[in-house]
Specification:
The protein is α/β, with parallel strands linked by helices. The protein is built from 10 helices and 12 strands.
């Protein structure tokens, strides 16, 4: 019986978390962790599998015989743009831990804006004891753009908190208990949305979609007047100059941003210090590395037993 192919790991995650997760992972095959200096000049030919997240640009030149590429996260645009991507299946990471983390972040951001947390923080800094008029969740319509696995879970949990939730995706999806819109119904969707949540994949159609023209079409009938933009999808889907213009002019009343056009976010970006903006460093749905490796092990087992891989990306659609 031939030896099992090693697995290449090329993940720009916290190194200590990767190392800890690798203990006990892939027990029946060698792991080549490219973060380990011992593997820097390793010959990667003849290897079937690679697990990647913002991997080194020379990976596919160095590993020309891959049979499957696994993304370290739900997003795959970082893989699709790498030079030399082979014509093999690309599998994205789908796991309940990742889904739960994303929904936690989305719900938290909606609640922070609903409960006017920044205003109360400012009052506390002044030692000012004053209550503000407080709408409830049922007064807010949250519109989610991107109704895949992550969007549907966030919608259900926001609904459980009492928010009115609607969803939009390029192809309309039927989601139990959630009113959904598709394709050319975007204007209708936006006109009803008080808090806009971006969970879109990055594709040619979605690049720069969150811009001033779109923000101007959001509802201004909610209890806070100006709408809020919350993005945990992909940084390339937003035009940051337009977000700043919208915030400065009152077209947007606030924002929560986990993703940016360029990461890490520049230290001189205005987003860091704006009183109505929450910034997090692309951590809304940080992958559980142990869960990622379990997912890859399961998919390799399917592949090697002749079963179909799950969660294979449509490279033309981009997700």
């Amino acid at each position: 019986m031939s030896a099992k192919s090693p697995v290449i790991v090329d993940l720009k995650f916290i190194p200590e978390e990767v190392e800890a997760a690798l203990r006990g992972a892939f027990p029946d095959r060698e792991v080549i962790n490219r973060a380990d200096a011992v593997h820097h000049s390793r010959n990667l030919s003849g290897i079937d599998y690679a697990v990647v997240w913002k991997s080194a640009p020379d990976l596919f030149d160095r590993a020309p015989d891959l049979k499957v590429v696994f993304s370290g996260g739900a997003g795959v645009d970082h893989v699709l743009t790498l030079p030399g991507l082979p014509e093999v299946p690309l599998v994205r990471f789908v796991d309940q831990t990742l889904t739960t983390r994303m929904s936690e972040w989305v719900v938290m951001q909606c609640l922070l804006h609903l409960r006017q947390h920044r205003a109360y923080e400012a009052q506390a800094a002044r030692r000012e004891w004053r209550d503000l008029t407080q709408p409830e969740a049922a007064d807010i319509t949250v519109g989610i753009m991107g109704m895949g696995v992550l969007g549907q879970d966030a919608a259900r949990k926001l609904s459980a908190m009492g928010f009115k939730v609607i969803g939009w995706s390029r192809g309309k999806r039927d989601v139990a208990g959630i009113e959904t819109f598709g394709g050319d119904e975007l204007d209708t969707f936006l006109a009803r949305t008080d808090f806009l949540v971006g969970l879109l994949p990055l594709t040619p159609d979605t690049r720069g979609i969150f811009n001033l023209r779109l923000f101007a079409r959001l509802s201004r009938d909610g209890p806070f007047g100006a709408p809020v933009f919350i993005n945990a999808g992909r940084g390339g889907s937003q035009v940051e100059a337009d977000i700043l213009k919208a915030l400065d002019s009152g077209v947007l009343g606030g924002a929560s941003l986990d993703v940016f056009e360029q990461e890490p976010l520049s230290t001189d970006s205005r987003f860091w210090t704006m009183p109505n903006v929450y910034v997090t460093p692309h951590v809304a749905a940080s992958s559980d590395v142990k869960a990622l490796f379990r997912h890859v092990e399961q998919q390799i087992a399917r592949f090697e037993s002749g079963q179909a891989l799950e969660h294979v990306v449509d490279k033309v659609a981009g997700y």
